[in-house]
Amino acid sequence: MQTRTTETFRPIAFWATTFVIVFELTAGSVWNLLTIEWVEVQLHHLGYPHFFSYVLGVAQAGAAVAIIAPGLRLIKEWAYAGAFFLWSGAVVSHVAVGDGLESWWVPLMFGAFAVASWMLRPADRRPGTSRRAWAVSIGLIVVLYAVSFLTLPAVEAGMHEHAVKLGWIAE
């Protein structure tokens, strides 16, 4: 028998962790598909080819939609696994080239959020959900993509400064 606290906390924790990873997946897909400077610098630093950003961008867009959409149980499982592999792969890539904690703690955190979101999924996020649930999911994806595009100029400037600070590029 679940306690009242668990009944209250679980859905809040699920939606908080899910929102974080879906927003990161949408923003990451925008960054990768537009190949902003930060993406180019990181790919070069880690030794990945330029086209890898497009592969990641398409995969991130698909994962964001699958995770936020109601139902789609099998696809959702693959999306969660892909998101976890994306972020754990980023951690391993940064560690392999000798980067410190300042480079790999963020993907580690997103990987942990993905695991938490997957573990906290409620039963109503499985097949047989309503049109309203689909409408809310689609609306959320549209809003997250709009925010990603609108905040891109500010993000690019901040990430440029961060890349300079890390020594990956010259001023």
| Low-pLDDT residue intervals, each spanning 5 or more residues | none
Query: What is the global morphology?
Result: globular
The SSE order reads HHHHHHH
- Helix count? 7
Helix content bin: over 70%
Number of domains: 1
E-strand count: 0
Question: What structural class should be given to the helix and strand makeup?
Answer: mainly alpha
Supply Rg: 17 Å
Strand content: under 5%
Distance between the termini: 59 Å
Summarize the biggest pleated sheet. none
Return the average pLDDT rounded to an integer. Answer: 89
Description:
Its main location: membrane. It is found in: Membrane. Keywords: Membrane, Transmembrane, Transmembrane helix. The protein is an all-alpha fold. The chain has one domain. It is built from seven helices and no strands. Helix 1 packs antiparallel against helix 3, helix 1 packs across helix 6 and helix 2 runs parallel beside helix 7. The N and C termini lie far apart (59 Å).
Brief digest:
By secondary structure, this protein is an all-alpha fold.
Give a quick set of tags describing it.
171 residues; mainly alpha; 7 helices; 80% helix
Secondary-structure map with pairings?
Blueprint: H1 4-34, H2 37-46, H3 52-68, H4 73-96, H5 101-120, H6 131-150, H7 152-166
